[in-house]
Write a structure and sequence with these properties.
Blueprint: E1 6-11, H1 17-25, E2 30-36, H2 40-50, E3 54-56, H3 59-63, E4 70-73, H4 80-89, E5 93-97, H5 104-117, E6 121-124, H6 131-141, E7 148-156, H7 169-172, H8 176-191, E8 197-205, E9 235-242, E10 247-253, E11 262-269, E12 272-277, E13 281-286, E14 289-293, H9 304-321, H10 329-348, E15 352-353
Parallel strand pairs: 1-2, 1-4, 2-3, 4-5, 5-6, 7-10
Antiparallel strand pairs: 7-11, 8-9, 8-15, 9-10, 11-12, 12-13, 13-14
Bound molecules: nicotinamide-adenine-dinucleotide.
Length: about 350
């Protein structure tokens, strides 16, 4: 059992770190103890803003702090694997922003290291922690929708390539699929009960570039925005088949000639359906009548602050009480396997079969 408050180190003080820093500040069982960023002035600014006693530009220096218990990794995707491995070797618990890493081989090595060290590893699939998602999961777990056999997930931006490292495949591992599509893919898969994927057929397109010429519309940008380089896909779509017979259709874009942005997740079961996003609906049949029921909750869609707080509180609790997190390393590996197969299917123009024995149980 780790001592309270749990001493936390944040690695990467860019755009998303703010939400993590705020939620750790609100958790009385945790203490913001150290911050690291390659960009020293960014680390200094965050240390001052959040009253963090230790700061550095090399995460290996942070990992030597003997009282540091856990790290939160908010860096470029291609750095996740090395930082996770070093942190686990140093005996720290790890929270890593999505994606777990950028290759299957790294994902499997991380899984082995997590088991070997017995440390907590939680992956940042934030949407599982949204209050509406947990509410809908209660209905699903009680069998109100029956077995879910089809899901549709979209994360379509008409304009929204974040630039900088996000647009550089070497650093990001891919485009909208590994950045925003991953959220709706994971959310659907989680609510379907995490069935084992067996085949993937997919397409990716690089048709429109990053469209940095467009004026009058704001969008999410990396802390080091640079529109001058872009070699990631701007659209991906995929059909994923699962061992239990269920299937999932996914599409995701950084830019598309679409009328508006669209984030939607809809699940269809044998007894009922649910719209998870953008609105919250349950579709059921009763006495030969179809009912579109509207669960009454504080807000539709993702409640970002509540989800981040819940995600953080859960990580702290798992570290302190040695519990398995809701978003396990096995789930991170399996999502990586689906993403990898989507890119391979697009490259080879073939359906990719995912062999039995690999993935969650490997
Ligand atoms: N959960 C979500 O909804 C969500 C949203 C945005 C980003 N993310 C994820 O969070 C991570 C960071 O994204 P961001 O938008 O904050 O990017 P960002 O570019 O704004 O910030 C990344 C920061 O990491 C620092 N950094 C990079 N490599 C480092 C290293 N080796 N050591 C120390 N610092 C390093 C950079 O200097 C930068 O300050 C990514 O993995 C991204 O996929 C998640």
């Amino acid at each position: 059992m780790s001592p309270i408050p749990l001493k936390i180190g944040i690695i990467g003080g860019g755009a998303i770190s703010e939400l993590h820093l705020n939620s750790y500040q609100n958790n009385s069982a945790a203490e913001l103890y150290a911050i690291c960023d390659l960009n020293e002035s960014r680390a200094k600014q965050k240390a001052a803003q959040y009253n963090i006693p230790h700061l550095c530009t090399d995460y290996n220096v942070m990992l030597q702090l003997p009282d540091l218990e856990a790290v939160v990794i908010c860096t470029w995707n291609n750095t996740h694997a090395d930082i996770i491995m070093a942190a686990l070797d140093a005996g720290k618990h790890v929270f890593v922003e999505k994606p777990l890493c950028t290759t299957i081989s790294d994902a499997l090595a991380i899984q082995r290291k997590t088991i070997e060290t017995g440390k907590t590893l939680q992956v940042g699939f934030i949407r599982r922690f949204d209050p509406n998602v947990q509410m809908l999961k209660t209905f699903i777990d009680h069998g109100d929708l029956g077995r879910i056999y089809y899901a549709k997930a979209s994360a379509l931006r008409r304009l929204g390539n974040p630039g900088g490292w996000f647009a550089d495949r070497e650093k990001s591992g891919g485009g909208p699929l590994i950045d925003v599509g991953i959220h709706v893919l994971d959310l659907s898969w989680y609510l379907m009960g995490c069935p084992r994927p067996i085949a993937v057929s997919a397409n990716t397109y690089n048709k429109l570039g990053n469209r940095s010429n467009i004026k009058n519309l704001a969008f999410y940008k990396t802390a080091d925005y640079n529109p001058n380089f872009n070699n990631v896909e701007d659209l991906a779509n995929a059909m994923i088949r699962f061992e239990n017979g269920a299937s999932l259709y996914l599409d995701t874009s950084y830019t598309l000639h679409a009328k508006r942005n669209e984030t939607s997740v809809v699940l269809y079961g044998e007894r009922g359906g649910t719209e998870v996003l953008p609105e919250t609906w349950l579709i059921i049949e009763k006495y030969n009548t179809i009912l579109n029921a509207r669960p009454q909750t504080d807000q539709d869609g993702l409640n970002v602050d509540a989800a981040f707080q819940e995600q953080t509180d859960h990580f702290v609790e798992c570290c302190l009480e040695n519990k398995a997190p809701r978003t396990t390393v096995e789930h991170g590996v399996e999502i990586m396997r689906m993403i990898d197969a989507i890119y391979e299917s697009s490259r080879t123009r073939k359906e990719i079969k995912l062999s039995k024995g690999r993935g969650m149980e490997s």
